[in-house]
Design goal:
The protein is mainly beta and 170 residues long. The chain is built from two helices and ten strands, in the order ααββββββββββ.
Length: 170
């Protein structure tokens, strides 16, 4: 009984007496700062992530798929391509209105792998695979600016259509 009482006191008073609490991982912290204080639109934000070496340099860049009412519309949800920066990340590109699955293609543009994402140009057009190619600074920021796959692009799925998202705010 005494051990239980000590454990309960630690849980209740640890923050006020300076005992460190577990912190979210650097990606979650970055995304929480990026999204900001949760409001009615963003409090239900979920994300799926795939870490992929997009530059073939040994560093894995996160590809993040944000979903919730605040990040999705009729065309799909928001895709972020991030790059590690110190102990955090920076946004390379934000692409709204894409759908899963996400593929990393064998082809490269300006040293970064091309990315395939399911999209449509308007609500009454069929879905297709958009090819996002790096221009030296970023990937296209919209699906209409991206090229269309010819259906023969080689690559691998890094985020399947069934990817499990987790809540950004717990």
């Amino acid at each position: 009984m005494r051990q239980f009482a000590v454990a309960l006191l630690l849980v209740l008073f640890a923050p006020s007496i300076g005992i460190p609490q577990s912190r979210p991982d650097p990606l979650t912290l970055f995304l929480q700062n990026y999204v900001g204080t949760p409001d009615e639109e963003t409090k239900t934000t979920e994300y799926a992530v795939a870490f992929v070496d997009l530059k073939d340099d040994g560093t894995k860049e996160p590809i993040v798929y944000l979903s919730s009412d605040g990040w999705c519309g009729t065309g799909g949800c928001t895709l972020l391509i991030l790059a590690p920066e110190g102990t955090s990340y920076r946004v390379v590109t934000r692409v709204p209105a894409v759908r899963l699955p996400i593929r990393v293609l064998d082809a490269k543009s300006n040293g970064w792998r091309d990315i395939g994402a399911v999209a449509r140009k308007s609500g009454n057009e069929p879905l297709y695979e958009a090819v996002l190619s790096f221009d030296g600074k970023s990937y296209p920021i919209s699906v209409p600016a991206a090229g269309k796959s010819n259906g023969k692009a080689q690559g691998k799925i890094v985020m399947p259509a069934t990817a499990k998202a987790k809540p950004l705010y717990q």
